[in-house]
Amino acid sequence: MQKATIKGNLTLDYAGNEALNTICSNLTFSGKNIRKIVITSCEPNDGKSFVAIQTAVNMAKRGKRVLMMDADLRLSIMDTQYEIELTGPKFGLAHLLSGQCQIDEIVYETNLQNVFYVPIGTDVQAPLSLIATPDFDNLVNVMGETFDFVVIDAPPVGLVIDAAEIAKSCDGCVLVLEYNKTHRRALQDAKDQMERTGVPILGCVLNKVTMDRLSTKKYYSYGGKYGYNKYGKYGKYGKYGRYEAGYYRREKQKGKE
Ligand SMILES: Nc1ncnc2c1ncn2[C@@H]1O[C@H](COP(=O)(O)OP(=O)(O)OP(=O)(O)O)[C@@H](O)[C@H]1O
Ligand SMILES: [Mg+2]
Fold first, then answer.
1. CA torsion sign, 70 to 73 to 79 to 82?
2. Does ligand 1 have an atom closer than 6 angstroms to the CB of 47?
């Protein structure tokens, strides 16, 4: 099997750890048939990939063999964000779904015990033609039989429909909300969209919670339950920057954004 080395820092502080423990316990108690989940949110930058990788790591620490699949085929930066180095020909989801390789060529064993990884392989212009297919459904099924838990990182459902298509192959979905950013209306739309797939929404993760503010309002005890401390500002891409480039202005080079 190909190897992947995740060099990025995945260490969480106490509150972050507690939050992830709670999220993963709740996922575990969602039912024994809930083993393939998709993570999405309303907008870019809410923390989907963060929640996906942290959930995978936390589940793996519980002794489960976990597969994390990057299905943000439009413009994922998972590999660069978490400094994931792949060995071999570096095939990924896009290669498999376009018939360029076999399933076993896109699954990487990582340096983290019990964590396996499927990268996108390469960005594609029309991901729906790859995702909304029996081949994708078959892949997710096979992964569900091979691994104890499958976490799929998707693009924001508020902008593109990919996550809803991915959800159709899953047992449940998780919506990530960014504290002080996600609007009620946007959340309602995302919820409606995901509900139309018929796949249960298992819950929401309130991410990037500013603990100081919560603690002054007697909500502190909930901080660990649903969110984590916001470690810094995330202005790297600007509002929708990367997705505008990814979805609507692809001529922009990734490096220049
Ligand atoms: N709870 C958190 N604590 C600290 N940093 C976070 C947290 N959640 C997300 N981030 C940071 O916020 C940024 C955006 O997170 P991430 O890439 O996971 O979002 P995303 O929803 O997957 O974005 P996209 O829609 O572009 O795929 C990253 O720099 C990530 O490290
Ligand atoms: Mg992401």
1. negative
2. yes
Give the domains, in start order, of the chain with CATH numbers: 2-256 (3.40.50.300)
Sheet strand arrangement including 66-70:
84-86, 2-6, 108-110, 115-118, 66-70, 149-153, 36-41, 172-178, 201-207
Residue 24 has, within 13 A of its CA and on its CB side, a CA count of 24
Judge residue 26's burial from the number of C-beta atoms within 10 Å of its C-beta, 0-12 exposed, 13-18 middle, 19 or more buried: middle
pLDDT, position 101: 97
Which residue's CA lies nearest to atom 15 of ligand 1?
A: 47
Substitution candidate for ligand 1 out of 55, 206, 226, 234 with most atoms within 8 A of CB: 234
Distance (Å, whole) CA 219 – CA 92? 42
Q: For atom 2 of ligand 1, which residue has the closest CA?
A: 208
Whole-Å CA distances, 198 to 164, 179, 195, 248: 10, 27, 5, 29
Is 197 a pocket residue for ligand 1 (Cβ < 6 Å)?
A: no
Q: How far apart are CA 161 and CA 157, in angstroms?
A: 6
Question: Does the beta carbon of 246 lie inside 6 Å of ligand 1?
Answer: no
pTM for the full predicted model: 0.86
What local confidence, expressed as pLDDT, does residue 228 receive? 39
Q: Using a 6 Å cutoff on CB, does residue 222 contact ligand 1?
A: no
Q: What's the CA angle centered on 49, arms 220 and 256, to 5 degrees?
A: 120
Q: Could you report the per-residue pLDDT of 120-166, keeping only the tens digit for each?
A: 999 998 999 999 999 999 999 999 999 999 999 999 998 899 999 99
Distance CA 54, CA 10 (A): 7
